[in-house]
Amino acid sequence: MIFLWPVNLSANESQDTCRLHVVYHYNFKETTADDVMNMDDGMLEVGSNWSVFYTRNYRNDCEFADSLRRTRVKADDMIEIWMQRGLPQSRFKCAVYKNYPIEGALTCTDEVMQKYCYEEEMPTITWELVEGDSVVAGYACKKAYGELRGRRWSVWYTLEIPYDDGPWKLCGLPGLIMAANEDKGDFSFICIGVQSVSSPMTFWDRPYIHCTPKELQDEKFDFWYDQSGYADRQFGFASNKGADEVTHFTPCLIEYY
Predict the structure, then answer these.
(1) How far apart are CA 230 and CA 223, in angstroms?
(2) Running DSSP on this structure, what letter comes out for residue 67?
(3) Calpha distance 71→21 (Å, rounded)
């Protein structure tokens, strides 16, 4: 892996105008051992040239961290201030930019103790359009099935909003995806609000570590297998835990490379 420091993109490359703001209830598992779903609000901003999906808690985390840096809070004080702020922390620290930085490309940022970024081609999902009608958030919807990297999805999309977009990396239907359910019940999205807007969008520049999707996946498996040991290796500490003191987990990933 190599470090990818913020790039000075032109205004046209790094910014866009949001035309549609969509809010989803997002339920997900973090590990295969989870028996209670995590919940957050997913936000989809659809611009003139590209779109971005993130969660409300993750956006709040990023904005709060930026405010601490601007006020030059000491590192020793930052954790205590963070814990005292009284807001839920994000467990989905991912942002997905579709058709960014160019049409046909997808940029994904994520965090596993450090900040990572990768680019890939936009996913090609072969959707099976099936019989079925429903209403989601007041919009008449049609049904479809599709598979993406080890997960099978049943989705509801609306022709009333003719954007071929949706939550996370789901896209490619003749209307906005309003609801999506992963067949094993590990992940689900359901739209709770759609609003036409005209507001600025921007790529969140950070000192990312540039990686491949598979390298990021491996980092997540390493982290969940031994969180304390992973932190020690990342920051050069000597681990003080024995093998019998480590609790191993397996991440429940929304896709597998």
Answers:
(1) 5
(2) H
(3) 31
Contact (Cβ atoms closer than 8 angstroms) between residue 21 and residue 192: no
Helix (H, G, I), strand (E, B) or coil at 84: helix
pTM of the predicted protein model: 0.88
Q: Residue 83: which residues within 8 A CB-CB, separation 6 or more? A: none
Calpha distance 56→118 (Å, rounded): 22
- Indicate the residue type of 64: F
How far apart, in whole angstroms, are the C-alpha atoms of residue 54 and residue 131? 31
Mean pLDDT of each 10-residue bin along the chain, 257 residues long: 36 77 97 95 96 88 66 64 63 93 97 95 97 97 98 98 98 98 98 97 92 98 93 75 78 97
User: What are 112's two structure tokens?
Assistant: 């596993």
Residue 156 corresponds to which tokens in the numbers above? Answer: 């509801």
Asked if residues 28 and 37 have their Cβ atoms less than 8 Å apart, the reply is: yes
Q: What is the dihedral of CA 32, 36, 40, 43, to 10 degrees?
A: 50
List alpha helices for 42-147, DSSP H.
56-70, 75-84
Round to whole Å and give the CA distance between 255 and 257: 7
DSSP state of 149: T
Per-residue model confidence (pLDDT) at position 108: 98
245 secondary structure, DSSP code: G
Tokens of 140: 């008449």
Which parts of 15-142 fold into alpha helices (H)? 56-70, 75-84
CA distances 88 to 64, 77, 93, 130, 168, Å, are 12, 19, 13, 39, 21
Residue 94 has what DSSP assignment?
A: -
CB neighbours (10 Å) of residue 173? 22
